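Submission sheet (multi-component)
Chains listed below:
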Amino acid sequence: MRPLKIGLSGINAVDNPGPGIGVARSLKEDPDLQVQVVGLAYDAMEPGLFMDWVVDKSFIMPYPSGGGDAFLERLLYIQQHYGLDCVIPNLDAELPHYIKWARTLADRSIQTFLPSMEQFRLRGKDRLVEIADRIELALPETRAVTNLEGLVQAIDDLELPVMVKGSYYKAHRCHTLPEALTRYHELVAEWGYPVIVQEVVSGDELNVVGLGDGAGHHLGLVGIKKLSVTAQGKIWTGVTVRNEAVLEAADRFVRAYQWRGPFEFECMVQGDRVNLIEVNPRFPAWSYFATGVGVNLPARLVRHLFGMPLPALPEYEAGKLFIRYTYELVTDMASFQKAITRGEVP
Amino acid sequence: MMQKLSRLAVSAEGFVFNPASGDSFQVSATGLRVLNALREGQAEDQIAHSLAETYQVELEDARRDVAEFCAALKSFGLTS
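Outcome: structure written.
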């Protein structure tokens, strides 16, 4: 059997890393899965382009916004010239485009394993209350605002401090109105509307990475706690946890919505009270953590998608540590030159 | 009290890990002894008697120390 050629975006393994390299490492570590990783980069300086022990071949992609014809053409070019059996998109902003084109890609024999557009919209930060109600979790008081009057009103309602969040990425704890205004403008400039204003809830932040099969069952769940984060709020060290209330809530989410694809489920836990904070419809940047404790979700996704044997779901152990570290790669300019001039490496 | 305590991972060196929250703690040798006794289901007064006898301290002091230790466990969410 020829190796599966799997396209991965988010190979920007920088200080705010995309999930792609962790997903690629996971795929490579399944001893019975023959995979060639195709990196889909948006910038010639994304480290994954140069990490040839993880990413076999990389292509520079046009941005998917703006109609999408150039993006689809690029994927078809990759399929024709290198091969592309499947794409696992790992960046929030490109997900709605991939979901919209899932049928078109499937007709061209490029598979995806994604939620429906309705599922994708439902877990938006402005509609989380519907999920929280349905799976019986608490939700911090939340307002979606689209103008300054709305922001001020939300802060009046919720009282400082508040969380001010972008519609796709980034969350800031704001203690003053000027701070909230500054963050509001930054988030609008970077991610557009709406901006989410949320009550601050205390407790332990516990997160789950999971994979839904699209028929109401999960193909693996792993719970973690972030022990330290970077200035951008990204995990640096973490530990696996087994909090049954949170794992059961993630399972209820998959069952209630028949979730299809990977997801990250973020909660604040105080005693027996579980507050739902966010559901991200993709692998998180720390998803290799799950692989490291025996639950290889990217490999399980590919096996499920292509009807390959799925090993029994292994139990993972609580108390396993995750430690991110920095590393340097020295190479010559040839690869960079190819990325710039030909748009592909090597 | 027992249910949450029984779930803790406790090493011989006194490193305590709560698998439900991801929190970890370090307890002294005496704290480890008290914690293990609580995990075995011993009553606070029984533990205090044992400590007073072993360390040759006043029973009231031992009772106060055990009570403080139990209050600390509760404040960390390790008992209900």
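Remark: The mean pLDDT of chain B is 94.
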